[in-house]
Specification:
Layout: H1 2-20, H2 30-49, H3 53-61, H4 68-74, H5 79-96, E1 112-115, H6 121-130, H7 138-150, H8 156-173, E2 180-183, E3 197-200, E4 207-209, H9 210-216, H10 224-237, H11 254-270, E5 276-277, H12 285-298, H13 311-346, H14 351-360
Parallel strand pairs: 1-2
Antiparallel strand pairs: 3-4, 3-5
Helix pairs in contact: 1-12, 2-5, 2-8, 2-9, 2-10, 2-13, 3-5, 4-5, 5-8, 7-8, 8-13, 10-13
Length: about 375
């Protein structure tokens, strides 16, 4: 029962850690720069294949039910650039909407447990009893939102919201530590997908959670010019033709397959690294949450020292992480293009939006 209660507690803590995100001055990346980069890749791909969709996507973004972040992101951009900026905001919007009525903390992960050989027998029994069902609702949410995007009866507001969530969740499921947890002797209740396992940040003089090492890698800037540079670099390194995993989008049944690709990376080597547990692992939840918030908001780690990231591990992460980001970006484009094809058969991607704009004018 003790381990069962601890597992429930760590699930809550993990939801807090992933749900809040980390400020740019500390270690945030996959949930801001990373998501923005996948969106930039997707936008370039959509523009290459269907440039006629760009204006329609721009009109759709104007109908988002939480418009303020999109107006801020658009800035002084005009025409295609304005649409591109709003499209990039769409991928990170789920993190910008934290603590609002749009927040869905369980939608960011689908975590299958990895059981180490030295895991306590009681923990093994509990996890095995749970079966193969992951923790977190990312896959269910992805199916829901992809369906809304392609549904000709969806309202513009619904489609814009669903597009934002689809783009964000697609980025998340391509990050190996968003689809895995490790249970071991050091982490008998789980390491909360690496958020409670600390390593030394190769780029900053500080310890950081392993999860955030994967989130951040080396791409940590949210400046548009940097995001564009990241996207261009990744597309040159990993063009579509270099990725045998890419295939025609078959529908929502592909989502679990893509998440399991990421999970396999976690199984094969993502947790094959020495890490120190959060020293408050066995403390009461309030203490753990307080320390986690201090790291999230101020970048102050609860540990003073942590094992260094081996050069081989760091180099491999720099190879695999951008590859996963490339796959996410191309697949986001494929989902949108598939939805456009379906809607074109009945009307157009933004037919209802155009009608609404004519009747009511643009949203201000």
């Amino acid at each position: 029962m003790r381990i069962q209660r601890a597992l429930k507690r760590l699930i809550t803590l993990f939801g807090l850690a992933i749900g809040i995100g980390v400020p740019a001055q500390s270690a945030q990346a996959w949930d801001h720069p990373g998501h923005m980069t996948t969106a930039a890749i997707a936008f370039a791909e959509i523009e290459r294949v269907r440039p006629d969709l760009i204006d329609k996507i721009g009109l759709l973004m104007l109908k988002h039910p939480d418009p303020a972040p999109f107006w801020v992101a658009a800035g002084d951009g005009k025409g295609k650039e304005r649409t591109r900026r709003m499209f990039i905001e769409a991928a990170r919007w789920a993190d910008d909407a934290k603590f609002t009525g749009h927040d869905r903390p369980t939608w960011h992960t689908a975590r299958w447990t990895i059981i180490a050989d030295d895991a306590p027998p009681e923990a093994k029994a509990l996890i095995e009893a749970r079966g193969d069902k992951p923790l977190g609702n990312a896959l269910e949410a992805l199916r829901l939102n992809a369906t809304i995007i392609a549904n000709p009866e969806s309202k513009p507001e619904e489609r814009a919201l669903a597009l934002s969530w689809m783009m964000h969740i697609m980025g998340d499921i391509h990050q190996p530590l968003h689809v895995s947890d490790l249970v071991s002797k050091d982490f008998p209740s789980g390491n909360a997908a690496g958020t409670l396992a600390y390593v030394w940040d190769p780029l900053r003089d500080s310890a950081m959670p392993l999860h955030l090492l994967w989130d951040s890698n080396t791409r940590r800037s949210t400046k548009l010019e940097d995001v564009d540079g990241y996207a261009q670099e990744i597309m040159e390194q990993y063009p579509r033709s270099s990725l045998p995993e890419l295939a025609a989008f078959e529908g929502p049944e592909d989502f679990e397959k893509w998440a399991r690709e990421s999970h396999q990376v976690a199984v094969d080597w993502a947790y094959d690294i020495e890490a120190i547990p959060d020293p408050n692992l066995d403390a009461d939840s309030d203490r753990v949450i307080a320390n986690m918030m201090k790291y999230i908001l101020e970048g102050i780690s609860p540990v003073d020292e942590a094992p260094a990231v081996p050069d081989e591990y760091w180099e491999k992460l720099q190879e695999v992480a951008p590859r996963r980001m490339a796959l996410a970006g191309y697949r986001i484009a494929d989902i949108i293009l598939s939805a456009a094809d379906r809607l074109d058969a009945e009307r157009t991607l933004s037919g209802k939006v155009l009608d609404a704009m004519q009747r009511h004018g643009p949203t201000n």
